[in-house]
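Hi R.,

Here's the chain you asked about this morning:
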Amino acid sequence: MSAPHKQKPSRGTIRTGSRSKSPAQEEALLDRVLEIVERARGHVARSANTVMLQSYWLIGREIVEVEQQGAKRADYGARVIERLAARLS
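And here is the predicted structure, written out as C-alpha coordinates:
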Protein backbone atom coordinates (compact mmCIF):
# COMPACT_ATOMS: atom_id res chain seq x y z
CA MET A 1 0.00 0.00 0.00
CA SER A 2 1.34 3.43 -0.83
CA ALA A 3 1.35 6.36 1.55
CA PRO A 4 -1.13 9.17 0.83
CA HIS A 5 0.38 11.95 -1.28
CA LYS A 6 0.74 15.24 0.61
CA GLN A 7 0.15 18.34 -1.45
CA LYS A 8 2.88 21.02 -1.29
CA PRO A 9 1.76 24.43 -0.10
CA SER A 10 1.46 26.95 -2.90
CA ARG A 11 4.18 29.57 -3.27
CA GLY A 12 3.62 32.58 -1.00
CA THR A 13 1.84 30.74 1.82
CA ILE A 14 3.01 29.67 5.25
CA ARG A 15 2.52 26.05 6.20
CA THR A 16 1.90 25.22 9.85
CA GLY A 17 1.25 21.58 10.57
CA SER A 18 -1.11 20.38 7.88
CA ARG A 19 -2.78 23.74 7.21
CA SER A 20 -1.56 26.46 4.85
CA LYS A 21 -2.17 30.10 5.70
CA SER A 22 -3.90 32.37 3.23
CA PRO A 23 -2.09 35.38 1.78
CA ALA A 24 -4.14 37.64 4.10
CA GLN A 25 -3.09 35.62 7.15
CA GLU A 26 0.51 35.67 5.99
CA GLU A 27 0.34 39.44 5.52
CA ALA A 28 -1.07 39.83 9.04
CA LEU A 29 1.78 37.69 10.40
CA LEU A 30 4.32 39.81 8.54
CA ASP A 31 2.76 42.98 9.97
CA ARG A 32 3.00 41.61 13.53
CA VAL A 33 6.61 40.52 13.03
CA LEU A 34 7.56 43.91 11.58
CA GLU A 35 5.91 45.65 14.54
CA ILE A 36 7.93 43.52 16.98
CA VAL A 37 11.16 44.32 15.12
CA GLU A 38 10.39 48.06 15.01
CA ARG A 39 9.59 48.10 18.75
CA ALA A 40 12.85 46.30 19.47
CA ARG A 41 14.82 48.79 17.35
CA GLY A 42 13.22 51.71 19.19
CA HIS A 43 14.04 50.11 22.53
CA VAL A 44 17.67 49.60 21.50
CA ALA A 45 17.97 53.22 20.37
CA ARG A 46 16.48 54.55 23.62
CA SER A 47 18.72 52.26 25.68
CA ALA A 48 21.83 53.37 23.80
CA ASN A 49 20.86 57.04 24.25
CA THR A 50 20.36 56.49 27.98
CA VAL A 51 23.75 54.82 28.36
CA MET A 52 25.50 57.59 26.41
CA LEU A 53 23.78 60.27 28.52
CA GLN A 54 24.89 58.52 31.72
CA SER A 55 28.43 58.22 30.37
CA TYR A 56 28.62 61.92 29.49
CA TRP A 57 27.24 62.87 32.91
CA LEU A 58 29.88 60.69 34.65
CA ILE A 59 32.64 62.22 32.51
CA GLY A 60 31.46 65.72 33.44
CA ARG A 61 31.36 64.76 37.11
CA GLU A 62 34.92 63.41 36.90
CA ILE A 63 36.14 66.65 35.37
CA VAL A 64 34.35 68.98 37.80
CA GLU A 65 34.56 67.04 41.06
CA VAL A 66 37.80 65.12 40.75
CA GLU A 67 40.02 67.16 38.45
CA GLN A 68 38.67 70.65 39.17
CA GLN A 69 37.71 69.93 42.79
CA GLY A 70 34.40 71.73 42.26
CA ALA A 71 36.00 74.88 40.81
CA LYS A 72 34.69 76.43 37.62
CA ARG A 73 38.07 75.80 35.95
CA ALA A 74 40.98 73.57 36.80
CA ASP A 75 43.95 75.28 38.49
CA TYR A 76 46.38 73.93 35.92
CA GLY A 77 44.78 75.71 32.98
CA ALA A 78 41.63 76.05 30.97
CA ARG A 79 42.85 73.69 28.23
CA VAL A 80 42.18 70.46 30.15
CA ILE A 81 39.13 69.68 27.99
CA GLU A 82 41.04 70.29 24.77
CA ARG A 83 43.88 68.02 25.94
CA LEU A 84 41.46 65.28 26.97
CA ALA A 85 39.65 65.53 23.64
CA ALA A 86 42.90 65.33 21.69
CA ARG A 87 44.05 62.26 23.63
CA LEU A 88 40.70 60.52 23.19
CA SER A 89 40.64 61.11 19.41
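One quick note: The helical segments are 23-67, 80-88.

Cheers,
M.
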